[in-house]
Amino acid sequence: MKHSDIAHYRQLTALKRHFTARSRRFPPVVEPAAMVDVVLLVLLFFVSSSSYVTRPGVRINLPEALHAEGLSMNAAVVTLTQQGVVFFNDRRIPLDDLRTAFEQFNFEHPDTLLVIEADAQVPHGLFMQVHQQAVSAGIRDIAGATRKPATTRSL
Question: What is the C-alpha radius of gyration for the chain, rounded to an integer number of angstroms?
Fold first, then answer.
């Protein structure tokens, strides 16, 4: 390089403007505390705006038994109320149609436990009538529902 080229290069570099950003740019950061606040607010909104559906039921007073066993949760349930109303799997059914419902259920779900929940005031004859209909429909595993007695502690 010639001396004039070097001088010319220095002159051009001196005239060159250096543009620098006045503020540094950082990538956006999501604050975890703010994210938790947003999630909790959305959760609170959905919980407060959802409707609470209670499962309708019939109150029965099961007879007490000292040595009651736990049963399977996927059992079919027949409920006999004090007023003589019969429910099979949460559906009201006339006593005359119960055997047909048992036969259909046994065909669809063989080897499923049937639990008979009878109020303590239900006559034993009605309990046995439901039991006999289940046996004649081909259901082999039948259990009667009971509850453990409330124990009282003495000092």
Answer: 38
